[in-house]
Design a protein that fits this description.
This protein is α+β, with helices and mostly antiparallel strands. The protein contains six helices and four strands; from the N terminus they run βαββαβαααα. The protein has a four-stranded mixed sheet.
């Protein structure tokens, strides 16, 4: 087990090299998402590099940083790893995160909260497209129990209605 003090170092992205053996591909749409994330939140996840400044994890972040014209990016240099461990880490960094699942109820609640706030960014910066967010919120709204104030009790249903079609009600100046 490797332990020790790691220090974030800011480096010129032009001095870093993409991993030629990176098995993960980054399409234009995903790179645009990474760029939007960096613009909105800042560069919050350092690029892992080896002793020769080759990216172990963060190839997409590096490409996005270069496209954005950033002068410095946070890096974390890993040393003392065998070539096999570097290759395995590059895969693990991507695959382990992809193996996670979502708690749909908590995710929906989070989007409900964010949708109700006055935010200065597009919720698509989360990586979810607007249609996905809308579907989550729609599904949540359609499965919620009705508001108790809107439910007419059985006792009231047995009584004849007070109001009938065509009745005219006056509330102050309103009719």
């Amino acid at each position: 087990m490797q332990t020790g003090n790691f220090q974030i170092q800011y480096k010129d992205p032009c001095g870093l090299r993409l991993d030629p053996n990176n098995a993960r591909s980054h399409g234009a749409a995903q790179l645009a998402q990474i760029e939007a994330s960096i613009k909105t939140f800042g560069f919050v996840n350092p690029i892992l590099i080896d002793e020769q400044n080759v990216v172990i994890a963060g190839n997409g972040r590096l490409m996005a940083a270069q496209k954005l014209g950033l002068e410095l990016v946070p890096t974390l240099r890993l040393s003392g790893l065998s070539d096999a461990k570097i290759r395995a880490l590059a895969i693990a960094d991507n695959k382990i995160a992809a193996n996670a699942s979502w708690d749909i109820e908590l995710l929906t609640t989070t989007f409900e909260v964010l949708s109700g706030l006055d935010i200065d960014f597009d919720l698509e910066v989360t990586g979810f497209e607007t249609v996905e967010i809308d579907l989550l919120l729609h599904d949540a709204a359609s499965t919620k129990a009705p508001d108790p104030a809107d439910v007419v009790s059985d006792a009231l249903r047995k009584e004849p209605p007070v109001s009938r079609l065509g009745d005219n009600w006056a509330l102050g100046r309103h009719r």
